[in-house]
Amino acid sequence: MEPACAVLEFPASAYYAVKKRERGPSRRGRRDEQLKKEIRRVWEDRRKGRRVYGARKVWLQLRREGIEVARCTVERLMKELGIAGVAARRKKPRTTVPGAGGQRPADLLGRDFSAAAPNRRWVADITYSDTFSGFAYTAFVTDLFSRKIVGWQVADHLQADLALDALEMAIWSRRENIGGELVHHSDRGVQYTSICYTERLEDIGAVRSVGSKGDSYDNVAAEAVNSLYKKELINFEGPWQGAGDVTVATAEWVSWYNEERLHSACGDIPPAEYEKDWLMAQAHTIMDLEAKASNEPGAAQSCSPSPATPRAPGKRCSASRAVRLSRLVTRDDVMSRARDIADLAWSAAASGSPISRLVTASPSTSRTLLRRYARGRWRTALSIQGIAAAA
Strand, helix or coil at 90? Predict the structure, then answer.
């Protein structure tokens, strides 16, 4: 072969390189085949991509798992695989009906959808889904700090109870952490301006805020949650039989959204992880300040006040605040486990299984939490059972 290549003035090494590539795939080809398996795994995983992630989210999830790959490579390979993220469909019916005229609260957010800490700003809205038995309506309450869904409810009507049940779930899930700085923002729908809803907000010390008439941009953060819900669940996994069907699927989607789904507003990590990291950072900051203060000359070596210098009433030391924050993180972990058990019990209610059997079978450490959590959703569970019995 070398004499022939010499006559043709063609490098023999190039000839052998071509023959070698014909015998097997190239290094890039082998790497692409490995990446295709990982990309499809992430995209199809019910706890990660759920077949709704686009190239960007798949790329971010691969990097979280330690797989180094360029985003353009993920885009190219997803195109070759014929997979893509979900896209929005057309909208309709009307879910916001303005209440009767009168004095309404001002727009306190002014299209600023940021929050300095959890439970400072909540946004609420209602969306719809088309089912074989008619429209089903879903109400969400979202914390703007982490974009975590703190309350939700599904019903086959647009009465005030729909929004109120979602608010009750939000209050229950954040019950010990709601301070006096909470601003609740919504549109001007009759559900959010009703007497029962406004009185409940007053009970928890929340300040009401509403957007201007006919302007969805005044509540765009809540609209964004509705859009994701429609794209990633309702339009993607339909058609649906009725409100009970939608309720069970929504419970699973909200759990995935809060615990697993990567959110760009949180720095491409899940909302629950974002809140936990923030709480840990706050605890470390307080403990660092306390340690620094204790090292200063003349600083007290103990948090406990001496008998000669009693502490002022209502004043607490920084160390005790740090301990409370640390306990708060631990309690969130316990509640996360209890919610998982409660979600199983709540889903079982749709099939007619008695919730008491699951409560009895749960670990003793989570049994009390489970009962309290299940009671918070019991109205929904009963409605599911009623729908199942009617079917």
Answer: coil
End-to-end CA distance of the chain: 79
Kindly calculate the radius of gyration of the chain based on its CA atoms and give it in whole angstroms.
27
Q: Which residues partner with 137 through β-bridges?
A: 128, 155
127-171 residue pLDDT tens: 988 889 888 999 999 999 999 999 999 998 888 889 999 999 999
Please report the DSSP string for 198-249 in residue order: HHHHHHTTPEEEE--TT-GGGGHHHHHHHHHHIIIIIHHH--B-SHHHHHHH
Please give the Cα distance from 124 to 140 (Å, whole number).
6
Q: Cβ contacts of residue 230 below 8 Å, gap of 6+?
A: 88, 89, 127, 129
Cα–Cα distance for residue pair 262/337, rounded to 1 Å? 20
- State how far the alpha carbon of 104 is from the alpha carbons of 121, 125, 194, 391, in Å: 18, 17, 11, 42
As a whole number of angstroms, the longest Cα–Cα distance in the chain is: 106
Q: What is the pLDDT of residues 8-22, one digit of tens each?
A: 777 888 877 877 777
| Whether the predicted model's global pTM rises above the 0.85 cut | no
Q: Which helix (H) or strand (E) holds 321?
A: helix 318-350
> What is the residue type of 155?
A
Count of beta carbons in the 10 Å neighbourhood of residue 135: 15
**Domain 121-221 belongs to what architecture?**
2-Layer Sandwich (3.30)
Chain region(s) in the chain for CATH 3.30.420.10: 121-221
